[in-house]
Write a structure and sequence with these properties.
Elements lengths: L1 E4 L4 H12 L4 E4 L16 H16 L3 E10 L20 H11 L7 E11 L5 E12 L15 E3 L4 E2 L5 H7 L1 H20 L6
The structure holds inosinic acid (IMP).
The site of inosinic acid has 18 residues, from strand 3.
């Protein structure tokens, strides 16, 4: 089954495509369909924002559309930046400027606990919606480490692997990440949905 990704984030595309492929889903990029919509994230929760993005793209394409809304919650900042992770520090900053700002906000702070959260929503033209979520617990490093990945990867440290996301191979990150966990939960929802509707995924 072909599902359109409601995102222009190349980092998310790279992580999601190989996982979805494992259960017969071909991820189609908006750009491959000549679609360049940018949906305003006006929701107050990850789920609301994921739903806004997936439904907008599903309506434009009349195809199932999947979106990920994700963010970083830092304990010492009472869960911030949360749904505002992509906009942390305001408009027009680079990923590096944003994570450096977060590092400055935590100077002198010994509680470095943080959690990356992902909400996956898939919206079908029939109006049906599947939702799944995943969390990865970690800490905010004292300085950026590693060159892989995207976004806040250089400062998100996972104690179990003793590496930041940016120091992991794509396979390692997909073994522990919030998005990979959300996609694993999505897989069971999706397979149940397909069984109930008698849909053959490889068609
Ligand atoms: P969204 O596109 O609204 O979901 O924005 C998510 C924000 O969280 C962006 O700033 C992303 O860079 C960041 N983000 C989400 N997932 C990850 C990740 O796996 N690694 C690093 N940053 C991430």
């Amino acid at each position: 089954m072909k599902i359109v990704l409601a995102s222009h984030n190349a980092g998310k595309q790279k992580e999601m495509a190989p996982i979805l492929e494992q259960f017969g889903v071909e991820l189609v990029l908006q750009s491959d369909l000549g679609l360049h919509i940018d949906v305003e994230e006006t929701g107050s929760t990850f789920r609301e924002n994921a739903l806004l993005k997936a439904q907008a793209v599903m309506r434009q394409t009349n195809m199932p559309a999947i979106s990920d809304d994700s963010g970083l919650m830092v304990d010492a900042l009472n869960g911030a930046p949360g749904v505002y992770t992509a906009r942390y520090g305001g408009e027009g900053l680079t990923d590096e400027q944003r994570y450096r700002l977060l590092l400055s906000a935590l100077i002198g702070q010994t509680n470095r606990a943080a959690h990356f959260y992902s909400c996956i929503v898939c919206a079908f033209p029939s109006g049906e919606v599947l939702t799944a979520q995943g969390v990865c617990d970690g800490t905010i490093a004292f300085a950026p480490m590693g060159a892989g990945g995207f976004g806040y990867d250089p400062i998100f440290f996972v104690p179990a692997l003793r590496k930041t996301f940016a120091q992991m191979t794509p396979e390692e990150k997909n073994g522990v990440s919030h998005r990979a966990k959300a996609l694993a939960a999505f897989r069971s929802e999706f397979e149940k949905y397909c069984r109930e509707k008698n849909i053959h995924v490889d068609e």
